[in-house]
Design goal:
By secondary structure, the protein is mainly α. Helix content is 68%, strand content 0%.
Length: 327
């Protein structure tokens, strides 16, 4: 199974990290039209534009559409809002693998960094870190120097967010540390710390990180050979996903449960789960490479070379058609 975390690199967590559902951006159109009008006629001193909730603007299924949404939202924004929106535009470039464009957007923002809000500064450091940690200048991933720079950006983001009680962003920064400190024990330490913060926070956005964090903790525990503990974490994450009504995230959670059952030697149970997932994905016209990989492993372990070969071929076809799917 591809153990790359769902939250790897530049993606927001899918609960909810609410991010998987397509947002109706047009509901904000009137707000920004009015703000643009006020700016045009001269906004009265002391009247500030309404806060922007970037999660309501993101369309995580399409970074390109998200960029268009963010650019439209800038029409009526003040300086601080525009700064925040531009950090998210940089993120859309990173999600598309356009790291030079992402860096250029952030470079252009840097001269204004000391003149914007703590939230804006925190988002700048988060996106700078993600751009560094996710960029692949050579085969094998970011250089040690890039990872070190990303670490500094995430730590600064965490410092700012903690000082200002921006728990959602503080959790984000902590969970990103697991992508620069990649030893399983270090990943577990960072994700445990993030989970503690999320669980104790009164910020609902911070609380919504729980399922993604438990998913990541389960992955680290599996890497450490603690499969029973991992299964407990994945089952909690599964319950949270199902309760949130997110069908795709729930399927991903089931796949993680099946993966861990296989690692525990409970192959018959794992096979039932993965076959059910395959049927659901095939009905939807979607390919999940993790499910194919798990089926290949399960049939290979059962000595069914023909079935194992079939799923291996399907997986190879998918990877050939999606060369960037598995960094």
């Amino acid at each position: 199974m591809n153990k790359t975390k769902m939250t790897q690199g530049l993606r927001k967590n899918l609960p909810l990290w609410s991010a998987t559902s397509t947002r109706l951006f047009h509901t904000y159109g009137l707000r920004y039209t009015v703000l643009a009008f006020l700016v045009a006629i001269g906004m009265p001193q002391g009247l500030h534009a309404a806060p922007i909730d970037v999660d309501q603007i993101w369309d995580w299924s399409s970074p390109t559409r998200s960029e268009a949404h963010f650019r439209a939202a800038m029409a009526g924004g003040d300086t601080n809002q525009k700064f925040i929106l531009k950090t998210q535009i940089a993120r859309t470039y990173g999600l598309r693998g356009q790291f030079s464009q992402a860096r250029q957007v952030l470079d252009d923002l840097e001269p204004s960094l000391n003149h914007v809000s703590p939230e804006a500064q925190t988002r700048y450091h988060l996106e700078r870190g993600r751009t560094l940690a996710s960029a692949v200048p050579v085969a094998g991933g970011p250089t040690p120097e890039m990872l070190s720079a990303a670490r500094n950006e995430y730590l600064e983001a965490f410092r700012l967010a903690s000082r200002e009680h921006l728990d959602d962003l503080a959790v984000d920064a902590l969970h990103m540390m697991a992508f620069v400190d990649t030893a399983p024990a270090d990943q577990l330490r960072w994700d445990d710390r993030a989970l503690t913060l999320a669980s104790n926070s009164s910020d609902r956005k911070a609380q919504h990180w729980e399922a993604s964090l438990r998913n990541n903790i389960g992955g680290a525990l599996n890497d450490l050979g603690r499969h029973h503990d991992a299964l407990d974490q994945f089952r909690i994450a599964l319950a949270l996903r199902a309760r949130a009504g997110d069908a795709e995230a729930t399927r991903q959670a089931w796949c993680s449960v099946g993966w861990t059952l296989r690692l525990l030697g409970r192959n018959a149970e794992a096979l039932v789960i993965q076959k059910q997932l395959l049927a659901e994905y095939d009905d939807s016209g979607i390919t999940n490479p993790d499910v194919l990989d798990e089926l290949r492993e399960l049939y290979s372990a059962a000595g069914d070379k023909q079935a194992a070969s079939m799923y291996a071929s399907r997986l190879q076809e998918y990877e050939a058609a999606h060369p960037d799917a598995n960094p």
